[in-house]
């Protein structure tokens, strides 16, 4: 099987650039990398189940201090509607 030299790699990269455009290259190579990782996992026999995460215990909710309001005075005047 012939090996790829630097000239062949440059031609392949130029063809990919022409086909997909510069904007799509990160997306194309990212999906290519994910595919290679999945292939390696499948060929090595690793399980698809992610490792169990330790249980996170949450602290009990803290009570908030009541908001101080103006004291109610017995002499409060009600506004009367003006007609």
What does this protein look like?
By secondary structure, this protein is mainly α. The chain has a domain at 6-44. The protein contains two helices and no strands. It has helices at residues 6-20, 25-44. The N and C termini lie far apart (100 Å).
Termini gap:
100 Å
Secondary-structure element string: HH
Poorly predicted tracts of residues: none
Beta-strand fraction estimate: under 5%
The computed structural class is mainly alpha
* Molecular shape: elongated
Mind telling me the C-alpha Rg?
A: 34 Å
**How confident overall, as mean pLDDT?**
77
DSSP strand tally: 0
Summed up:
With 83 residues, the protein is mostly helical. 42% of the residues lie in helices and 0% in strands.
